[in-house]
Amino acid sequence: MRRFLASLAVAALLLGGCDGTAGDPAAEATGAPVQGGKLTWAIETEPVTFNPHQYAQAKARLLVWNSFEALLTHDDKGGYLPWLATSWEASADGLTYTFKLRDGVTFHDGEKFDAAAVKANLDQLLVPGYAPSVAATQLKHFKDAEVVDGRTLAVHLKQPDVLILDFFASPQGAQVSPKSLKSPDLKAGGPSVVGTGPFVLDRYTKGQEVHYTKNPAYAWAPANAGHQGPAYLDEVTYRFLKESSVRVGALTSGQVDVIEGVPATEQELVKSDPNLRFAKQLNSGTAYNLYFNLTRAPFDDIRVRQAFRDAVDVDAVLQGVYRGTATRAWSLLSPSSPFYEPAVEKTYGNDPAKANRLLDEAGWGTRDGEGFRTRDGRRLTARIVLSAPFVRDKRDILAQAVQAAVKQSAGIDLQVKVVDQGTAADAIAKGEFEVFDNSRADTDAGAAIGLIVPKGAPINRHGYVDPELEKLIGEAAATSDTALRKAAYSTVQKTLNDKAVLLPLYAPADQVAAQRNVGGVGFEPTAGVPGSAYNVWIGK
Questions:
Q1: Which of 134, 464, 507, 536 sits CB 3.0–4.6 Å from 334 for a disulfide?
Q2: Cβ distance 260 to 510 under 8 Å?
Q3: Residue partners of 138: CB distance under 8 A and separation at least 6
């Protein structure tokens, strides 16, 4: 039997120093936390849904944790701390996890939080069509949940899976009121779908803003939350301002108190403003990668995939788009992940001569009047379809920079389209793409790997299949031995690079900036994404 108990941890990274690397060095200037006040926060991305079970946008995470909570949370080392659970226990065979739950917790609608509520959430997640990607990945080894008593829940698995704890610390594992699970608006979320968190979502105006009010009864923050009891702020309004220049302008003019998503072109301006503070943090999980569709031409030929990679000077592209603020990626995983494999660095890329030689060998030896390579009268074309709600960090501009690079260096016609979510999903479903993009902010990189690599996984749109690799991934998910997991994920990264399944570009990062009188703005431990408004206050 292995026992996991709470340990006190310091709240992660409060906004202070300009490099955003540690502590809260400017807290003294702000003064002690102040109760009350209304804060306005401008964000880059409007959520597709406010239901945490449906969560898919890393940029929406700071909103999720305002009103919803999970059984566990992460500490700053990637481990776990109790949240709505007080402790948990794994059986010797790894097939049962027993959770002891907090007493006295209530949902915003007055419903009681107990073991039956957690079971209702798990049952809902397995309803066909409700959250298929969660059911197929995070809960793929889940067997059933047993209510032992009001404060005790036993989770039974079909086979050992240490990533079940990551699920119980993720937005998808957040707890929704049993009454809300019957709401006709359940999938979309909103005021009728509630949790137990420090704020209540009471108003949403599509395309404009979402508004939260303090939950005065809140008294169950995790040990590393920064403080205990209700939130400091009375109200928080998040305005959806997609254009970065508009967000920064709103901050510098005093129209908003906080912004997230500070572009490279504006970071020096923000840092040099004595009235503002700036911080940034790398996200965990995967890098932002371009994946090739191996199930169709032209990327069913490894030589073409390798040529595409070698045609791009990634460092130059990132410099042009992000002005030296982006961290280069070399593998599936973000360099901030403890499972990152540095041995893959500088093993490919920026070799136009090799790219052109490979394309000649692959039969794309002629060019048309526009300089694009052709074979049998067909142009060497690849399509990438970007879903507008998931475009962040100027990724549309980045795609255009890659487009220009592969045309100039190797004569590849990369066609870039930014479309609405429905059109993008339809193109993916029909296989009408040769390249797709993705990044994940999963705290445990193993969760991301499970979504992307195995055959049939929700994000395995690349079509690469490797039974030996899948076996390694399964073994890594069944053990808590960090060394064994690291070795397995190292092999995954090396193999995907060797097979040229993807082109890693950069490690996603989040930036926050705030008025100098705002304190407590920070990042989630390990994940590196902006935290909720729970610990934020406005100084006098």
A1: 507
A2: yes
A3: 163, 164, 166, 167, 170, 172, 173, 447, 450
Q: How long, in residues, is the chain?
A: 540
What DSSP element (H or E) covers 374?
strand 373-375
Q: Kindly state the tokens that stand for 471.
A: 């076996």
In this structure, what DSSP letter does residue 282 have? E
Question: What is the mean pLDDT of the segment spanning 349-355?
Answer: 97
SS3 265: helix
The type of residue at 383 is: R
Closest of 442, 467, 458 to residue 528, by C-alpha: 442
Please state the three-class secondary structure of 483-500 as a single string. Answer: HHHHHHHHHHHHHHHHCC
Position 57 confidence tier, pLDDT thresholds 50, 70, 90 = confident
Alpha-carbon span 223 to 81, nearest angstrom: 8
What's the rounded Cα separation, in Å, for the pair 430 and 433? 8
DSSP-derived letter for residue 9 is -
Over residues 449-463, the pLDDT tens digits come to 999 999 999 999 999
7 sits in which H/E element = none
Categorize the per-residue pLDDT at 7 as very low, low, confident or very high, splitting at 50, 70 and 90. very low
C-alpha–C-alpha distance, residues 106 and 215, integer Å: 11
CB–CB of 334/340 below 8 Å?
yes
Spatial separation of the C-alpha atoms in residues 425 and 423, rounded to whole Å: 5
Nearest in space to 166 (alpha carbons), one of 285, 60, 57, 65? 285
Residues 6+ apart with CB under 8 A from 129: none
Residue 201: strand pairing partners = 212
Tens of pLDDT, residues 231-252: 999 999 999 999 999 999 999 9
| First-to-final CA distance of the chain | 51
How is 216-243 classified by DSSP, letter by letter? Answer: TT-----TTSSS-SS-S-SEEEEEE--S
Check residue 30 and give its pLDDT. 62
Residues whose CB falls within 8 Å of the CB of residue 516, separated by 6 or more in sequence, listed in order = 26, 29, 30, 274, 275, 276, 277
Euclidean distance between CA atoms 161 and 360, whole angstroms: 46
Taking CA atoms, 492 is separated from 95, 230, 329, 489, in Å, by 26, 44, 15, 5
CA atoms within 13 A on the CB side of 330: 15
Q: Of 137, 198, 129, which is closest to residue 166 (Cα–Cα)?
A: 137
In this prediction, residues 331-358 reach a mean pLDDT of 96
Give the rounded distance of the alpha carbon of 30 from its chain centre. 30
| 496: its two tokens | 């995907």
* pLDDT score at 15: 53
Q: Are 513 and 276 in contact (CB under 8 A)?
A: yes
Average pLDDT for 522-526: 89
DSSP code, position 182: G
Beta partners for residue 288, in sequence order: 506
Tokens at 225, concatenated: 């939350």
pLDDT tens-digit series, residues 206-231: 999 999 999 999 999 999 999 999 99
Please list the helix, strand and coil fractions of the chain in percent, rounded to the nearest 5, in that order: 30, 25, 45
